[in-house]
Amino acid sequence: MEFRLDDAVDVLSRTPATVRRLLEDLPQRWTHANEGPESWSPFDVLGHLIHGERTDWPGRARMILAGEQRSFPPFDRFAMFEASRGKSLDELLDTFEELRSDNLRELEGLDLTDDDLDKTGRHPDFGRVTLRQLLATWVAHDLGHVAQIARTMARQYGDEVGPWYEYLPVLHRRKEPA
Questions:
Q1: Cα separation of 93 and 25, whole Å?
Q2: Residue from 28, 37, 30 nearest 178 by CA
Q3: Which of 26, 47, 64, 138 could pair with 121 in a Cys bridge, judged by C-beta atoms 3.0 to 4.6 Å apart?
Q4: Is residue 53 within 8 Å of 46, Cβ to Cβ?
């Protein structure tokens, strides 16, 4: 599918409400459970999404639009462990909603053109990337983490589903890296 900014914004605007509906008011046995060592709980994933809102997507987009040729600052994929410490799930849900709303409002206010979407920045690992690629990645990143939250939650009942286990690929497909 070809990237369209309005479609991307439609998806990105739904992620906070989707995550809220999945997690709000659930006990910690759901929200803090993970898939084993070196995996993330839904709480961790939410913290990671917040960290991206603060330090990744909008900042990199601004760098591209400003024509900066220096490499994007590296993204700390694990910063949420410290940043979320001591916070409640409700605090994280509210923070994610607020940051995403602010970031989408800023994005929409840019009135981006196709020429803007073709502007490039420099990723520390991939080299030249376009704004279009960055924004498409933001959408795919969101959807991947929504799927990760659902998968992590489903796997909590992996031992309880009995003979249906083989018919539930979410329970036994190889775990993707966090």
A1: 11
A2: 37
A3: 64
A4: no
Query: What pLDDT shows up at residue 81?
Result: 92
Per-residue pLDDT at 140: 98
Q: What is the pLDDT of residue 55?
A: 93
In 110-150 the beta strands, taken as DSSP E runs, fall at 120-123, 127-130
Distance (Å, whole) CA 134 – CA 8: 11
DSSP E strands, the chain: 120-123, 127-130
Q: What share of the chain is helix, strand, coil (3-state, %, to 5)?
A: 65, 5, 30
Q: How far apart are CA 86 and CA 139, in angstroms?
A: 29
| pLDDT value of position 175 | 59
Q: How far is it, in rounded angstroms, from Cα 88 to Cα 26?
A: 12
Using only C-alpha atoms, the chain has a radius of gyration, in whole angstroms, of: 18
pLDDT along the chain (178 residues), means of 10: 96 98 97 94 98 94 93 93 95 98 96 96 95 98 97 96 95 68
Q: Distance between CA 37 and CA 109 in Å, rounded?
A: 42
